[in-house]
Amino acid sequence: MATPKYVGVETEFGIAITGPSDVNPVVASSLVVGAYRGRGRRDVRWDHSDEHPLRDARGYEHPDPHEPFPDDDLGLANTVLTNGARFYVDHAHPEYATPECSNARDLVIWDKAGERILEDAAAQAVTTLPPGSRVLIHKNNTDGKGAAYGTHENYLVPRSVPFGRLTRQLLPFFVSRLVYVGAGRTGNEFDEVDVPYQLSQRADFFEVEVGLETTLKRPLMNTRDEPHADPELYRRLHVINGDANLCEVATFLKVGTMLLLLDVIEDEALPELPGLADPVRAFHRVSHDLTCAQPLRMDDGSRMTALEIQWHYLDACQRYVKEGNVDDVGTTAVLDRWEAVLTTAERDPRALDGQVDWATKLALLESFRDRHDLDWGHDRLKMVDLQYHDVRQDKGLYQRLAARGRVERLITDAEVDAAMTTPPEDTRAWFRGECIRRFRDQVVAAGWDALIFDVGRDALQRVPMMEPGRGTRAMTAELLDSVDSAAELLDRLTS
Amino acid sequence: MSDGGQVRKGGGSEQEPEEHVEETPESDAKDVLDDVDELLDEIDDVLEENAEEFVRGYVQKGGQ
Predict the structure, then answer these.
(1) Between A93, A382, A386, which is nearest B63 by CB?
(2) Domains in chain A with CATH codes
(3) What is the pLDDT of residue A36?
(4) Average pLDDT, integer, range A57-75
(5) In which band, very low, low, confident or very high, does the pLDDT at A52 lie, cut at 50, 70 and 90?
(6) For position B37, what pLDDT does the model report?
(7) What is the DSSP string of A449-462?
(8) Which of the four, A187, A241, A440, A460, has the lowest number of CB atoms within 10 Å?
(9) Are A377 and A196 in contact (CB under 8 A)?
């Protein structure tokens, strides 16, 4: 029986300022994040003391850092919200990192809450700029002009699972999952005239199979080893090859399949599959193939399509669940949806319109192209592509499709509204969010695995939270309800 | 905003094959087309003005 898995997703949003303002994107991002105050209250700072982004899962500290450490000295906004999320500026983009979630459906809810938070924050930020200014936020991953920015999934995995096994068994999965993970884009990075549209926003930006970098020479399998949990027990699998999804079904599948597959890999229940002969090239090819039927060369000389590879993984996961290793409705929903999506894709991948982003956006682009008789390279089509990702509910084209019932919903607006301010109840995010809500003035900093309190004593007090499955509502509500102050809470925790 | 679209709409529905009309009630097929047209009308309304200029100016810093 595999250990419980937890997931969080971080998204760097695109940001554009128009009008008379002359602010650069770093300052603009900081304005956006800073504008989103807990209803006029003081920010809780991020605690960096546990961050080691250069530590490598292959067992060494990277000697030649390409990535600067996050730097509060720049005065960039960097805060923690009562819903347990982190909201900050990273690489000239506003970034929202969901709180830790125990299942895919919760992740969809707190990921959607992030879209609403960005929409709110941008609306507040614009009031600080000269009249006529606009701040537009896009949940996308490329500007179509050579820049890419990330959406990273993070999964808690026991350290006992060898990293080599994860890499070997996940690479074909990452390449083939574009069928439902891709958010679609017009054009490509290789000046190929026969690729006017492709499945993935990010695929063209990947250059190597395995590596530590995230901003250049991007690897399909990222080796950052920074568990934000007990490092003896866990690693955090940092998946950087996915797209930012608007479609709830796409986010649900992206995360749900991984949570289940990681259990299967942990329990050594995945039948070996030949590796891809050239995973990076295959990643590009799958992204460029709207039929999802192109055979890919495997390292044993055989050929498989992306869908055949996906069926291999689905079969293994179905068998694993049937054998009684997992028993919850959420997992059954993932399996059912996964099978339905692959079945549809086999018949006609474009029929995934309304469920996955690339097909939904493609259908929209085709209708628009037809109506206005536009060539694929036309800027107005690129505008439709871009505006699909606009987070504003009255302007974003995905948002308009959702309002018209043209994309399938899995969660309710009420759940999303609540998730903007309240954390998931069954992870340590609950304790983090609740402490900030109850004791905002005493929590001076918060990180994924610690809270730092200042209750007026000689030293600041650090409360470690090294276990993502602890600090749940069930475990801590009674304690929190029984204390009247942060000082009393600390006394009770240390007694 | 887009006269061209209206012309295309008419052309498209005339070209519906006969047998397709038989298996889908005509009113339903018309509803779907109307719905798509309504959607495209809305997109024409909400789409960024000066789309060409906006798209050309949309340049992001690289991230992770």
Answers:
(1) A93
(2) 6-418 (3.30.590), 425-494 (no CATH)
(3) 87
(4) 53
(5) confident
(6) 87
(7) SEEEE--SSSS-EE
(8) A460
(9) yes
Domain ranges of chain B: 25-63
Q: Do A379 and B52 touch (CB under 8 A)?
A: yes
Give pLDDT, residue A328.
85
Establish if A347 touches chain B: CB-CB under 8 angstroms. Answer: no
Yes or no: say if A80 and A86 are a contact pair by the CB < 8 Å rule. yes
Of the candidates A437, A495, A427, the one whose C-alpha atom is nearest the C-alpha of residue A107 is A427
pTM as predicted: 0.92
Average model confidence (pLDDT) across chain A: 94
Q: Catalytic site residues of A?
A: 90
Is pLDDT above 50 for A105? Answer: yes
If you measure CA to CA, which chain A residue comes closest to B57?
A16
Find the residue in A nearest to B6 (Cα): A371
Question: Which H or E run contains A250?
Answer: helix A248-266
CB within 8 Å: B43 and A12:
no
Single-letter residue type at A495: S
CA A308 to chain centre: 26
ipTM of the complex: 0.90
Q: What gap in Å lies between CA A25 and CA A256, rounded to an integer?
A: 34
| Interface contact A92, partner B, CB < 8 A | yes
Tell me the per-residue pLDDT of A149-204, one tens digit each, with 9 for 90 and over. Answer: 999 999 999 999 999 999 999 999 999 999 999 999 999 999 999 999 999 999 99
